[in-house]
């Protein structure tokens, strides 16, 4: 049986793949938003696994903060900030391609770190 956490993990993976495809096509806005979506979904997975709220942007940030404290890994906060910057870029379109690519790499690392906390 698939749990909600499993669902969010899978969606996170799919969104990151789509973000990389959009990046390769030069669509930086869609790459940015799919990157943000990937990060948000992996936070939802970790929050679901712990029974935490994840129904708003604020709740996602609170969950990441709790996870960073729980694991003594402040890098989780920094990596999630990269995802949030991509989310802003979707609306503003000011990031050069290299920043978007680096942001997607940060989200990949973030998802890997959180994935270890879910299972």
What does this structure look like?
The mean pLDDT is 96. The protein is built from 5 helices and no strands. The protein is 84% helix and 0% strand. It has a single domain, classed as Nucleotidyltransferases  domain 2 (Four Helix Bundle (Hemerythrin (Met), subunit A), Up-down Bundle). The two termini are 14 Å apart. It has 119 residues and is mostly helical. Helix 3 packs antiparallel against helix 4.
Briefly, what is this?
This protein has 119 residues and is mostly helical. Helix content is 84%, strand content 0%.
- H/I helix tally: 5
Structural classification: mainly alpha
- Strand composition percent: under 5%
Proportion in helices: over 70%
What secondary-structure arrangement, pairings included, does this model have?
Blueprint: H1 4-25, H2 28-50, H3 57-71, H4 75-92, H5 97-118
Helix pairs in contact: 1-2, 1-5, 2-3, 2-4, 2-5, 3-4, 4-5
What are its keywords?
119 residues, mainly alpha, Four Helix Bundle (Hemerythrin (Met), subunit A), 5 helices, 84% helix, globular
């Amino acid at each position: 049986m698939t749990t909600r956490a499993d669902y969010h993990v899978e969606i996170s993976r799919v969104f990151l793949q789509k973000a990389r495809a959009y990046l390769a096509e030069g669509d930086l806005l869609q790459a940015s938003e799919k990157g943000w979506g990937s990060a948000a979904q992996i936070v939802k997975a970790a929050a679901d696994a712990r029974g935490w709220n994840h129904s708003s942007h604020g709740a996602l940030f609170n969950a990441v903060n709790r996870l960073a404290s729980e694991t003594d890994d402040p890098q989780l906060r920094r990596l999630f900030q990269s995802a949030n910057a991509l989310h802003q870029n979707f609306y503003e379109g000011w990031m050069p391609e290299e920043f978007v690519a680096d942001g997607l790499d940060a989200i990949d690392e973030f998802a890997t770190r959180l994935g270890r906390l879910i299972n």
